[in-house]
Design goal:
Layout: E1 3-6, E2 10-16, E3 31-37, H1 39-49, E4 54-60, H2 65-73, E5 77-83, E6 89-95, E7 101-106, H3 115-122, E8 130-133, H4 140-149, E9 153-157, H5 163-169, E10 175-179, H6 180-190, E11 201-205, E12 211-215, E13 218-222, H7 235-248, H8 253-267, H9 280-285
Parallel strand pairs: 1-4, 1-8, 2-6, 4-5, 8-9, 9-10, 10-11
Antiparallel strand pairs: 2-3, 6-7, 11-12, 12-13
């Protein structure tokens, strides 16, 4: 089968800082590096490195050719990445001494994906394929509704969080993943807990406390693997990509979550985003 990912692609400008700046504070960085990122690109690379076929649906500006080449090198199908006039999206990421981060996003071309690009891509999809999207592009509702009509299984990563955008797609979802803060915000907005949303599978990630799966048999907790974090950027996307790849390959949900937990734990021991996502052999060999 295959996974179709309507997702963002960014240039990530990563600055190492002693601490996350307070409002009004000027702070000198101790290092700067540039990576490929964006929640969509991170997930596509993670899916590919986990051994599944992934087709990325997105848009880049005239300055984005490097990202297409990078994605191709990492095993991602890039035929449905459009070039538009708007400059490629980017993120400014600050990472402190404890691996925590603060991120400023500029959507750029990620908000200009042509609807024709989405429709052309999904015309190639087959019943039983997965469709996934996040909150960093346009066309989310259009994408999930079209995918559902075509018989695809639909997954949604609710970040960056917007209660309105999540509620707009809930009726189409087979799988929802969000973090603990986002889950609380969604409960406040809807009045429903994760198990009351009417979605077959909901996964709530809990950072260093692991993850909870709300499935047909109720809630199941999965502990995290203890590691010393260097950079948490992209760890959630790595977790999501590996989890979806596991499901695409026919794994039961619990087994896919365990695989994703190892991938996410390994990811936080590295600095960077899509370029440093571990491959399947590294994840299988990783014992924490």
């Amino acid at each position: 089968m295959a996974i179709w990912n309507l997702g963002s692609i960014n240039a990530d400008l990563v600055y190492t800082v002693p601490h996350i700046p307070a409002p009004g504070e000027t702070l000198s960085s101790t290092n700067r590096a540039t990576y490929m990122g964006g929640k969509g690109a991170n997930m596509s690379v993670a899916i590919a490195r986990a051994g599944s076929r992934v087709n990325h649906i997105g848009a880049l500006g005239p300055d984005g050719g490097w990202a297409v080449q990078r994605l191709l090198e990492y095993g991602v199908d890039t035929r449905h990445i459009a070039q538009v006039e708007t400059a490629t999206g980017h993120a400014i990421i600050m990472v402190d001494a404890h691996g925590e981060n603060a991120i400023l996003l500029h959507a750029g071309s990620n908000g200009e994906i042509p609807q024709a690009t989405l429709q052309t891509a999904l015309a190639e999809a087959q019943t039983g394929d997965w469709f996934v999207t996040q909150n960093e592009t346009n066309l989310q509702r259009t994408g999930v509704s079209l995918a559902k009509k075509m018989g695809l299984k639909v997954a949604y990563a609710a970040a960056p969080f917007s209660a309105d955008r999540v509620q707009a797609v809930l009726e189409y979802l087979d799988f929802l993943i969000l973090n603990e803060v986002e889950a609380a915000q969604l409960t406040e907005a809807t009045g429903k807990t994760p198990e009351e949303l009417g979605i077959r599978d909901v996964v709530v990630t809990l950072g260093s406390d692991g993850a909870d799966w709300f499935g047909p048999d109720g809630k199941q907790h999965f502990p995290a693997i203890p590691v010393t974090p260097i950079d948490t950027t992209g760890a959630g996307d790595t977790f999501t990509g590996y989890l979806l790849a596991g499901l695409d390959q026919g794994m039961p949900m619990a087994k896919a979550i365990n695989l994703a937990t190892k991938a996410g734990a390994l990811m936080v021991t590295r600095q960077g985003t899509a370029d440093v996502i571990p491959d399947l052999s590294e994840v299988r060999a990783f014992n924490g």
